[in-house]
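Running low. Any example?
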Amino acid sequence: MDVFFVYIFKSSILLSIFYLVYHLLLRKDTFFTIHRYFLLLGIISSLSLPFLEFTTIKFIETPDFYIVNANSLVQTTTISEELPWWTIALVIYLLGILLLIFRFGIQLLSLRKLFVNNHKIKKEGYTFIEVTEDIAPFSFFKTIIYNPRLHSINELNIILKHEKIHVKQYHTIDLLIMNLLMIFLWINPFVWFYKKSLEQNLEFIADRAAINDISSKKEYQLTLVRVFANNYSPIVNNFYQSLIKKRIVMLNKQASQNKNLWKITVILPFLSLFLWGFNTKEVVKIKQNIKINPTISENVIFQEEGKNTAEFIVSKNSSKEDLEKIKKSLKNNYNVAIKFKGIERNNNNEITGIKVDVSSKKNKANYALTNEEPINSFAIVYNSETGKISIGQSERKTDHVWIDNGHKDKAIEIHSDHDNEKHEFIFIGGDKKKKVKDGKVIITEMHEGHGDHFEIHTDDNKTFAYFTGDSDKDPLYFIDGKKATKKEIEKLKTEEIETMEVSKGKAAIKKYGKDAENGVIEITTKKK
């Protein structure tokens, strides 16, 4: 019901705007035909524009609130009582509609009675009905009704010319539409003035057209004055209308200059203001992701009771505050330093690229993701007992990369917790590196030295990930036997790599000199 009243309110405002523009700016000009279309446009606009709605998007900073699960909220039920005056207003409005519908029905029945009970004469596409009732001449669609005994032959000729203009230009349609609108919007006082203005303008149109077929303008005006009778019905075109003085004034008024047509455009800014003020819906979007309450919603930090490992989750939706929370937690609780660099986001504020550097007293780890699509969630896992740092896909139903420095045989393991995904393992132990993928074993040479340095490409959306041991400098890089830079390595796609060899310590220095003291990574690409 509220929606209906809002529609009535908007429709009334639009009709009032058109009426005020017409009354204040247009009614004194002689552009009668243009005024007719203007008034009809006002009716159409008042009925249709309330349905038109525009949407604007407003971006705001992340508000300081949390999203919680619906189940955790205490549900309360409130009962709102409808104000009695709304009910009273609705009853009055509906009673007014019923009364006007009844009145409109009576008028139609009276017309039908005239059509049925009197003789009709069809001539030149018109239907003429001569009646004996004391009524003023009027037309209804193609039917012209008059009492010939009330007028002289000359007066009757002038009257019929006038009514034929109403018939030719279908003025009855204007009146029917206006009367139906008045029933619907009767509660708006401007609708009554609007109807009166529309009827007067139709008479101005007929007067101006009829005068062109009559030799004497003065005789036409005298006929208007002499013809006096009661108007039959407001849904027909009467030759005689009240305000005869206005009709005579408009007949003698000089035609308005075309430059005055600009006044019609005044309606446009008012319509724009209406649409902006009443028909514009604002949608608020948050620039950054909303914080998640760690006690209720998805966590960014996991630490199971009785265990020495803490897992920190970074997802595509991680906000600046989330990353800062991880940084502070690692620093304050475990004395582990972490840096998030090179963060790239798309238009939806989702992370598409990020670099992570983590270091503790016993271990270091680096991780990088650069994708066109948003990143998959990954985990930073720290074992406070062994000092082991692991960076990779989260163990919570996602991929995981694990570095084990706590045993004699070092190992990197990449696996997935999804049952329907293929597993990939890389084991490093002794002097050999064995890669097992889809049942195929690839052996590459591995030379142990001081510290450990491993760089790998994963098959996850062309993701590049790298891990370092206790060295702060980069190793030497070679692609197909040619020295390369770290950026060239990162540009390689997973499917382009055939094998990768990692050399450290004396073996690397012996082969490449002192420049290889931080290790060497040799990559062989697939032949095209």
In short: Residues 84-117 form the longest helix (34 residues). DSSP finds twelve helices and 25 strands in the chain.
